[in-house]
């Protein structure tokens, strides 16, 4: 990667602890400062490696202070117009260099950017390139087949769910219609029983007190209670005259087709 041109207006990077030590030693020793760069750095590097930690601490602390100050100055500089102008100029320079290096195109198979050059046919590079493309193509075809199979399986599953839902709804509708019919028949039966037995008055008794007094007439809302009381009278053999009267009334209603549901 090419480096951007240096921003001369930006704050200078701070020296490291070792660089501060080098500067310190050069000021201490004129003989050391007069040595060639490579030899001087070799000597100072050895000294720095063997320097005790407590003596290094001062250089590290100074380096940290300089680095913190640099960070603050750099943050302020990046907000300035000078930095924005330099950044725009640097980006423009990079774009021009990219254009000058030649155009690139997108590989339709791998999706990566490829140089715009031609591979001579029947060369090793061409054959290898072609082989890799065939491998990728086979993988894509295999994935396509798998997706088609999964789609067909899911489609079949969805169809089964739709059919099951339709069947359940149909059964539910049938049961609801049957329930509605039964309710209508029950209401008709109650009306016919009231019409047939409306004149009969049952003596009302209880299990705990068979001699208790009271009467009950049949109505559309008390059919169940009336029939239950009638059953108790028949079972206890009490008031059989009333029970026989009920039986006679039912037979008459059936004969006259007043009570049609029991025919």
From TrEMBL:
It holds the Pfam family HMG_box. It comes from the Eukaryota. Transmembrane segments: none annotated. Residues 130-199 form a coiled coil. Residues 11-78 bind DNA. GO terms for biological process: regulation of gene expression. SUPFAM superfamilies: HMG-box (SSF47095). Residues 11-78 form the HMG box domain. Keywords: Coiled coil, DNA-binding, Nucleus. InterPro entries: ChromReg_NeuronalGeneExpr, HMG_box_dom, HMG_box_dom_sf. One of its GO terms (cellular component) is nucleus. GO terms for molecular function: DNA binding. SMART domains: HMG. Signal peptide: none annotated. This is HMG box domain-containing protein. It comes from Opisthorchis viverrini (Southeast Asian liver fluke). The lineage of its organism: Eukaryota, Metazoa, Spiralia, Lophotrochozoa, Platyhelminthes.
């Amino acid at each position: 990667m090419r480096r951007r041109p240096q921003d001369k207006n930006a704050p200078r990077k701070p020296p490291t602890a070792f660089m501060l030590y080098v500067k310190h030693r050069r000021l201490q020793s004129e003989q050391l400062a007069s040595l060639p760069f490579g030899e001087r750095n070799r000597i100072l590097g050895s000294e720095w490696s063997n320097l005790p930690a407590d003596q290094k601490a001062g250089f590290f602390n100074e380096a940290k202070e300089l680095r913190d100050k640099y960070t603050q100055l750099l943050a302020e500089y990046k907000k300035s117009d000078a930095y924005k102008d330099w950044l725009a100029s640097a980006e423009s320079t990079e774009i021009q260099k990219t254009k000058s290096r030649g155009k690139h195109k997108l590989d339709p198979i791998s999706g990566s950017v490829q140089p715009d050059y031609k591979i001579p046919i029947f060369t090793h590079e061409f054959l290898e390139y072609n082989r890799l493309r065939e491998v990728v193509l086979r993988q894509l075809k295999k994935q396509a087949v798998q997706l088609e199979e999964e789609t067909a399986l899911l489609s079949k599953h969805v169809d089964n769910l739709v059919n099951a839902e339709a069947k359940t709804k149909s059964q539910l509708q049938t049961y609801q219609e049957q329930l509605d019919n039964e309710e209508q028949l029950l209401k008709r039966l109650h009306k016919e029983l009231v019409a047939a037995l409306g004149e009969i008055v049952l003596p009302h008794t209880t299990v705990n007190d068979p001699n208790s007094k009271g009467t009950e007439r049949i109505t559309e809302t008390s059919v169940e209670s009336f029939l239950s009381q009638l059953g108790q009278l028949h079972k206890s053999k009490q008031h059989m005259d009333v029970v026989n009267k009920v039986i006679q009334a039912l037979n008459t209603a059936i004969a006259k087709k007043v009570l049609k549901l029991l025919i």
